């Protein structure tokens, strides 16, 4: 698939959905307090606009690469299965390696790995439904 064959609106929606999911996932409503405690109380030294702007760019990059991996019109079940593979089998597994060496907790890995698994499943859902 060439980049120009990609459904850019679906990719943009996937990136926005990732950003929205992260806002909820890491909020006090879900895992925000637990995540902050497991990280030893994260301090914000940079401007929030920069943090959110860079985070969105990474979400957009992930959505573009995932869409490229799936192809121009993936079947829904194919796209969702690949979302699980990308999120759990690649991103969370790589976090697991890093977290083991950094001696971070299983709880933190479950929060962060769970987020990225959900992120890529949502990417698959959007890209599998919107051709």
UniProtKB/TrEMBL annotation:
Keywords assigned: Membrane, Transmembrane, Transmembrane helix
Tree of life domain: Bacteria
Pfam families given in the database record: DUF1761
Transmembrane segments: 6-31, 51-71, 83-101, 108-130
Keyword match Transmembrane: yes
InterPro entries (alphabetical): DUF1761
Record's protein name: DUF1761 family protein
Taxonomic lineage from the root: Bacteria, Pseudomonadati, Pseudomonadota, Betaproteobacteria, Burkholderiales
